[in-house]
Design goal:
Layout: H1 3-16, H2 26-35, H3 42-75, H4 93-111, H5 118-134, H6 142-162, H7 170-191, H8 206-226, H9 229-251, H10 253-262
Helix pairs in contact: 2-6, 3-4, 3-5, 4-5, 5-6, 6-7, 7-8, 7-9, 8-9, 9-10
């Protein structure tokens, strides 16, 4: 096998398993380090690394592949997603199914060799994503909540792994910020005319989505004003994040490219 062919296989695999989306597990890392009061030992970091290997390249690599199989026909209709490996014909659905099963199976198997909370954590992520992929993503408003729930689960799971749920109250603000992110994604796709590739969009208008987005921002402001210390810190960070992303996507080519890459 030539270097060029090997490089192409790696590129297709990375695209199929959506490697760029593994960055969402920074929420897991934050939850873990926060629960450790940012004084993690070397042993803590090794445990964190092992758990992330199970969750991201293995379990979520399989979950994202499964999602790509399910959405392959719809992705053909989306100009930003039609070059994904399955709709582009680079990988067959049968081959992708095997990849998904192997990765998910390996994630479940290796979770058994980690602390006891990792196995139910893995099952929770898997169940929630299957629910979202095969049902909730096509139900108005529930799709937004289900997508948000996976991010909250990352945060809480990181705390749980660290053995300290003292900061559980951050789950509330996490729902709001991830909900706002999902709504903005819908706004972005609607502006691109991608309703055919995400049928749930037909239940909204651009105006109604912007109203929901602004509503989420108002709730974030309330967390900043009335919340506890970490709610204020996280609230300010994500207010800036959503403001820069929301305005920048339509006015900055650089920000638009970054967001398009993250959600390709």
């Amino acid at each position: 096998m030539s270097v060029a062919n090997f490089g192409k296989i790696l590129r297709v695999y990375a695209r199929l398993t959506r490697v760029e989306d593994y960055t969402t597990f920074l929420q897991f890392v934050f939850g873990f380090l926060l629960a450790k009061n940012f004084s993690a030992t070397a042993a803590d970091l090794i445990l964190l690394g092992k758990t992330l290997l199970v969750l991201a390249p293995l379990l979520y690599g399989g979950i994202y592949t499964l999602n790509n199989i399910k959405d392959a026909e719809l992705d053909k209709l989306n100009p930003k997603k039609k070059d994904r490996p399955i709709p582009a014909g680079e990988v067959s659905k049968e081959a992708a199914s095997w990849i998904a099963m192997v990765l998910v199976g390996a994630g479940i198997l290796f979770s058994l060799f980690l602390p006891p909370q990792v196995f139910p954590m893995v099952l929770g992520f898997l169940a929630l994503n299957i629910l979202y992929t095969f049902w909730a993503k096509n139900v108005p408003y529930l799709s937004m909540l289900a997508n948000s729930a996976t991010h909250v689960l990352r945060l809480i799971s990181g705390m749980w792994l660290a053995g300290n749920l003292e900061y559980w109250y951050l789950a509330g603000i996490w729902v709001v910020l991830s909900f706002g992110g999902t709504v903005f994604r819908y706004i972005k796709e609607m502006s691109e005319g991608a309703i055919a590739s995400r049928p749930v969009l037909k239940f909204y208008t651009s105006r109604s989505l912007w109203r929901i987005f602004y509503g989420a921002m108002v709730v974030l402001v309330l967390f900043v004003i009335l919340g506890r210390f970490w709610e204020r810190i996280v609230g300010v960070f994500f207010l800036i994040w959503h403001t820069v992303g929301g305005i920048g996507y339509f006015h900055s080519k650089t920000i638009k490219k970054l967001i398009d890459f993250a959600w390709r």
